[in-house]
Amino acid sequence: MKKPVKPAREFISPSDLTFGLSTCKRCLWIKYWYKLSAPLQMPLVGTLSALQEEKFHNADMPTIDPTLRPGTVTKWGEFVKSKPLRINESETRWRILGKYDLVSTNTDGTIGLIDCKVSDSQRDSGAFYSPQLEAYSFALENPAAGKGQIVASQGLLIWKPVDAVGEDRSSYGFGVDQKYVAVERDGARFLNVIEDFINVLEAELPDPGSECTTCIYLGARNALDNL
Predict the structure, then answer these.
(1) Quick check: 54 pLDDT over 80?
(2) Domain that holds residue 132
(3) Which pLDDT band holds residue 124 (cuts at 50, 70, 90)?
(4) CATH number where 155 lies
(5) Is 152 helix (H, G, I), strand (E, B) or coil?
């Protein structure tokens, strides 16, 4: 596969720092150089996420978790774009671009970042999602335009479905366990992940991922076509 003169997209999605780099570097490379991704089949994710986020519009932060600084959720669902990322003191072509879930305005002048999840996955930990949240925090502190703000806290607000509730069709719903997981700031790790990520993108096309379901399917499909 020939590498184009320039990538089809030069903005790094925060979620790709969590899922893209850890799943298949070949698919990741194709996504950024050709703007081509395998279709995702998650029809309820957007609906559930929107309902969860809406629940906390204008919420007081300590009501979400008592460890959070006094403040109020004042922004939600907005895109943030960063200045160009720097690796080894050199400016790259790459920036962060993503849409955060919730941001608070704190009484001490700082802000708080919350990423909402509706999930029962065992991987929903601060360590797993740290690069993704750090990317949002980096963009908020180093915006492409305007003045940055200090992100004093970042964390996951997780809803885990546990049961069905309601007595009739007008009140049926799902009950959830809510958990807030604080994600400690780790700028050093973020820069290491970013460096690995950019090195993958700037290199030649990687080999297919040995556990990538898309690559495995395409390999088997191509084998059938050649029978």
Answers:
(1) yes
(2) 11-225
(3) low
(4) 3.90.320
(5) strand
